[in-house]
Amino acid sequence: MVSSKEVAKVAGVSQPTVSRVLNNPEKVNAETVNKVKQAMEKLNYRPNSIARSLKQQKTKYIALISGPLHNPFFVDSTTTIVNHAKEHGYHTLVYFEDQGDNLSVYEEVLRQQVDGIILSSIFMEDPIYKELVASEVPFVMFNRRYQAGGNYVEIDNEKAGQLATNHLLKLGHTKIAWIGGPTYTSTFQGRLAGYQKAMEVTNHPVKPEWVKATDTTEKAVVQAIDELLLLDDKPTAFFAATDSMALYCQNYLLRMGYRIPDHFSICGMDNIDITAHAAIQMTTLTHESNKPLGLHAIEHLIHMMEVESEERKIMQLTLEPKLIIRGTTGPKQ
Amino acid sequence: MVSSKEVAKVAGVSQPTVSRVLNNPEKVNAETVNKVKQAMEKLNYRPNSIARSLKQQKTKYIALISGPLHNPFFVDSTTTIVNHAKEHGYHTLVYFEDQGDNLSVYEEVLRQQVDGIILSSIFMEDPIYKELVASEVPFVMFNRRYQAGGNYVEIDNEKAGQLATNHLLKLGHTKIAWIGGPTYTSTFQGRLAGYQKAMEVTNHPVKPEWVKATDTTEKAVVQAIDELLLLDDKPTAFFAATDSMALYCQNYLLRMGYRIPDHFSICGMDNIDITAHAAIQMTTLTHESNKPLGLHAIEHLIHMMEVESEERKIMQLTLEPKLIIRGTTGPKQ
DNA sequence: ACATATTTTGAATACGTATTCATTATAATT
DNA sequence: AATTATAATGAATACGTATTCAAAATATGT
Question: Could you tell me which InterPro entries the record lists for this protein (chains A, B) (predicted)?
Answer without folding.
Answer: Cro/C1-type_HTH, HTH_LacI, LacI/GalR-like_sensor, Lambda_DNA-bd_dom_sf, Peripla_BP_I
